[in-house]
Amino acid sequence: MTTGDGLLMRVRHPIGGLDAAQARILAEVALRFGSGDLELTSRGNLQLRGLDTPGLETARAELEAAGLADRDPEAEAVRNVLVAPATDIDPEAAMDVQPIARQLARALGATPRLRALPPKVGVLVEAGGGLPLGRVPADLRLEACTGPGGVWIRVAVGASAHAATVLGWARPEKAVDAALQVLEQFVALRQGDPDPPGRLPGALARFGAKALTPPGLERVLPGGDPVAARSSENADSGIGACLNGDAFGVAFPFGSLRAEALRGLTEQIRGQEGRLRLTPWRSVLLVGARPITLDRLAEWGGVTDPRDPRLVVSACVGQGGCSAGTTFTRADAAMLGTAARRLLADDEYLHVSGCEKHCGRPANARVVLAARAGHYDLSLQSAPAHWEALLEGLSPDQLRAALSALEQITHAERVGMFAALRRLGPTDLRRRLNAMMNNGEET
Q: How far is CA 3 from the centre of its chain?
């Protein structure tokens, strides 16, 4: 796609990770044909920025030869599968689900009827364990768990493991067929509809679970729902040493890194088993790698402390990288990390957008700052996919004061932001924020 700094090329989530050769090719392509800027996305993809038209086909051919892209663009468009990054080395995972994810990705590209899927529809495949994806949003969820008689796959629709609507249960060998049938029924429901739902949760809300549920699924698992009962309290963050030291995660603020950093990480991989695995937390998980110094990682912009305040803010590329951006979003977002960390709960984000489209916004972004004519409007998430606008026209210098005021109100109410918004209502909360912003005190 065309962006403000040239063409952007997206490489789909590499199931099982990048080996050393693939990672080197990605870094070289980014430097030779683009600006050398890379982005990790919340769907586990990797984006190359700043390409130009003359070099596009050569760059694409090199990625195809490395097994990083499909030669058929229609197959590539529907190959949207995100898998838990380390179920093959995670002793707590119900099973290694990477083979299921690979089989599903191949089947998606090989099924002509599914070429009609909307481009953002994605499937998540996970198995609990030390690096679960229970809070990572997806359209269709295949979640492995241990149940009566062995391992089962929960087939569900929804933004998180706990909030998802369960369609049924399948044995692992039947999971791919079940997923394909759900997606085919979704495509069939869209046909002839003048306003078709663009995502599976929308179809679920309009047509009900029965319309999406394929035959052959077990409707109820005896003994309850092990996936819903999982707790993430003991899960690793995916950053720093994790999985009993068998993996090491490096995050990058805003998911942004240079090709030189990718090349440097590649140099740490040892042998045939070493991999760089891309995660939905905008991090790279090193498996089978040599020890690496924190100073070296810091030189590349890497973060290894899960409590680093830079990791609770996200931002689109903003002015300079996007023609629609009206502010330098990442510079503004960088100064808000400490205030956002005090305000937000774990796994919540503040997102800074250069325009009203909110590109790159994480599903669990609780505060959004959307730029308009060089200033920002502040909104809170009041319900899934619903935002309540509270403040308008904030200058970059006013942003920290606004977050501080919001923190003081929630602290005084002794509740989080969701509860404060429900308790006070948007009108009263807006009044109190304006009073604190204008007078330096609450009235």
A: 21
